[in-house]
Amino acid sequence: MFSFFKKKPPSAETGTVFTEVGFTDVFPAKTPAPEVPAPVAQVPVAPALLPVPAAEPLPPQPAAPVMAPAPAVVPVPAVLKPELPAPAASAPVSPPVPAPQVAPAPALAPVALPVVESPQPKPEPSRAGWLSRLKEGLRKTGSSLAGVFSRTKIDDALYEELEEALLLADTGVKATEFLLEDLKRRVRETRTTEPQAVKGLLVDSLSELLKPLERPLEIGRHDPTVMMVVGVNGAGKTTSIGKLTRHLLEAEQKVLMAAADTFRAAAREQLAVWAQRADGSGVQVQGAGWVDIVSQQGGDPAAVTFDAVNAGKARGCDVVIADTAGRLPTQLHLMEELKKIKRVITKAQPDAPHEVLLVVDGNTGQNALTQVRAFDDALQLTGLIVTKLDGTAKGGVLAAIARERPVPVYFIGVGERLEDLQTFSAREFAQALLS
Ligand SMILES: Nc1nc2c(ncn2[C@@H]2O[C@H](COP(=O)(O)OP(=O)(O)OP(=O)(O)O)[C@@H](O)[C@H]2O)c(=O)[nH]1
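Above: the input record for the complex with guanosine-5'-triphosphate. Below: its predicted structure, written as tokens.
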């Protein structure tokens, strides 16, 4: 199973970033006082499980738990239940327990995830496997674009056909104009005469346009890192949070999810199912990650989130993720609710939320751009997760986003499986589109 954590350069601000480079580094040591005995969840990690490339040697950090020599066998359960003061802690999934003082406080009922059943983790799928899925997913968008270059010469007709294909792929007028101008310049400068070679130049041009969207999601800079996830109904928020959480667990992270979609029946259960899923073959968490869910069906989403951030701080969580209910940006009262959730997070932790992520369905083309604009205006987005790029004819929308509202794309999704959500690479995307 892949992961894509990479340690940042050693510094006081050491954190972890999601990159496209594979499982290349260990999660950085947090900075607990060395004299404090490590809690169970911070059991030293066997270096063998976390290969570090020679090119990036780790600095000596003797006090850091993750760097400490590990015992030969570390019998760490897949998911450790946090030791909570909550009375419901003994039950795997307990009914909401009313907080004694604060009336709307949601129950903190930990979800005990099953311990690893199978000792045989699946082999980590290679990035190559991902690239072929990405290519396959973008085939509908790419085929009409690539078809343009089967013409016999580079002339106005070729550029007109390309313009039409870009517009049909929902690249949008601005990005299309930009790409055509840039391409013509590259053709002139390189004195290219073969239409097939123009395709290569378009890959370069598109990569450059998309490059500003390529940015890693950082984990580890804050305690905890608080993320708020928003989007329209059915965009793939819960699924994406589930996939993200799986990767965080595999990287030894303590994750607290806030089911801030309090009107959805079984929101909690849906999150729990995803948190447990791994390739459909059971939990395969290596190490000491654990997940917990805060929910209160029918409660105030802002109160649930507030409670989750406070609980996350109290329990020493690494990441708190708030899953909000889907809404259209035109539903102004619901957009106000999101603003309130964001304000309330800041009350619980002054520098939070650290990430406001919009999940957009890539299959909606220009509509996705409209959503990015509207949610960004309301919430000042920090990143995007673009889902459902599999089978879409509208994959050009990423170019439109890059040109018109360049919010970083942390992840793209090409399917419903765990490994179908991966970090975004501008060049990979351009190559897959025009392959
Ligand atoms: N084909 C495909 N389906 C996806 C992808 N991501 C999510 N889905 C599916 O999209 C559907 C909706 O996903 P959810 O995660 O429930 O969406 P949501 O945004 O949480 O929905 P609401 O809570 O109703 O707003 C599910 O059937 C997912 O399996 C993807 O990348 N590709």
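Notes for the reader.
The CA atoms of residues 70 and 231 lie 42 Å apart.
Residues 1-123, 278-286 have pLDDT under 50 and may be disordered.
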